[in-house]
Write a structure and sequence with these properties.
single chain; 82 residues; mainly alpha; 2 helices; 0% strand; transmembrane; B12D; NADH dehydrogenase [ubiquinone] 1 alpha subcomplex subunit 4-like 2; transmembrane helix
Length: 82
């Protein structure tokens, strides 16, 4: 019903088409980013199999989306093995 109403408004007012496009683009990008965050190493969905999945990560794993000053290839693990 909402999609049909939006299409009717777009037919009557063609200037709304770019606005609908960019709203859908923004919502899609936000949804994809939330999915990416939900699949990260710091999120635990199943606590019975692996309660602390971040302990299994290599010290060279890049945690941040963009790391400008950190070179993850040269890092060494400084903590104990679990």
């Amino acid at each position: 019903m909402i999609f049909r109403t939006a299409m009717e408004h777009a037919k009557r007012h063609p200037g709304l088409i770019p606005q609908f496009f960019f709203i859908c683009l923004g919502m899609g990008g936000a949804s994809m980013y939330l999915i990416r965050l939900a699949k990260g190493p710091h999120v635990t969905w199943n606590k019975t199999n692996n309660p602390e999945p971040w302990n299994n990560l290599d010290p060279t794993y890049q945690y941040k989306f963009v790391a400008i000053t950190t070179d993850y290839k040269n890092l060494k693990k400084e903590g104990p093995e679990f």
